[in-house]
């Protein structure tokens, strides 16, 4: 999902303590000759980031378990720049699933080139619809958060960081492909669980990024879902299969 997590080097900059979310100037100090000492947070007196010693697989497992410490490590203390590619790939997975369901509903096996072209266009259409739905979902989240906590989103960098966190937290959509490949009678239930998991990940990403309580992120997600469903209803009124 998230790939190999790079180990950040000690340097002056804005790092975060994964325990209390306090700021730190360095994650560890290198005394050379292989001697490293993890920095201690001045606020909570705990290691700033214990995950710099962990294997990437362990970090990924902790992220899947939606631990706030793992999210802070990934968002604040590493230089991961895959959120754009991850977003596109997740949208492709979702578009493929919708396209496959659309093909199953239309049992047309005509091999004519025009039919094949129409099916290919359907896939692009599903990708566009999935992109618009996700955009409306994120837009609803930003509107709700800006309305509830305007002081949290004053700077452009705050919006960018939150957008990056939301994009990374949608990695659960990658599970759509295995759910389709291993098709069985419980596939709709699996898709529902994947949807819930993605929403939980989005909630944790918002909470960690803006240092909020557990209620406000869910309120923002609820508003995002309302806006997303509004877009779906608009497509359905236009006669599009979504």
UniProtKB/TrEMBL annotation:
Please state what the protein is called: Protein ARV
Alphabetical list of InterPro entries matching this protein: Arv1
Which key words are in the record? Endoplasmic reticulum, Lipid metabolism, Lipid transport, Membrane, Transmembrane, Transmembrane helix, Transport
Report the sequence similarity comment from the record.
Answer: Belongs to the ARV1 family.
Task: Report TM segments.
Answer: 126-147, 159-182, 215-235
Annotated membrane topology is: Multi-pass membrane protein
Q: Name one GO biological process term.
A: sphingolipid metabolic process
Function per UniProt: Mediator of sterol homeostasis involved in sterol uptake, trafficking and distribution into membranes.
* Organism encoding this protein: Cisticola juncidis
């Amino acid at each position: 999902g998230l790939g190999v997590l790079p180990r950040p080097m000690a340097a002056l900059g804005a790092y975060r303590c994964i325990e209390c979310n306090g700021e730190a100037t360095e994650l560890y100090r290198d005394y050379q000759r292989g001697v490293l000492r993890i920095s201690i947070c001045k606020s909570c007196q705990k290691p700033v980031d214990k995950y710099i010693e962990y294997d990437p697989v362990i970090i990924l497992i902790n992220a899947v378990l939606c631990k706030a410490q793992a999210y802070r490590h990934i968002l604040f203390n590493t230089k991961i720049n895959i959120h754009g590619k991850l977003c596109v790939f997740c949208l492709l997975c979702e578009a493929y699933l919708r396209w496959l369901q659309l093909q199953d509903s239309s049992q047309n096996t005509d091999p004519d080139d025009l039919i094949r072209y129409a099916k290919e266009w359907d896939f692009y259409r599903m990708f566009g619809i999935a992109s618009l739905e996700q955009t409306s979902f994120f837009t609803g989240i930003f509107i709700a958060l800006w309305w509830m906590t305007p002081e949290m989103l004053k700077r452009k960098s705050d919006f960018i960081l939150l957008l990056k966190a939301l994009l990374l937290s949608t990695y659960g959509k990658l599970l759509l492909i295995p759910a389709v490949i291993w098709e069985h009678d419980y596939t709709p239930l699996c898709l529902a669980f994947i949807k819930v998991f993605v929403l939980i990940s989005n909630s944790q990403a918002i909470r960690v990024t803006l240092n909020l309580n557990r209620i406000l992120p869910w309120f923002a997600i609820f508003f995002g879902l309302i806006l997303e469903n509004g877009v779906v209803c608009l497509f359905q009124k236009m006669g599009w299969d979504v």
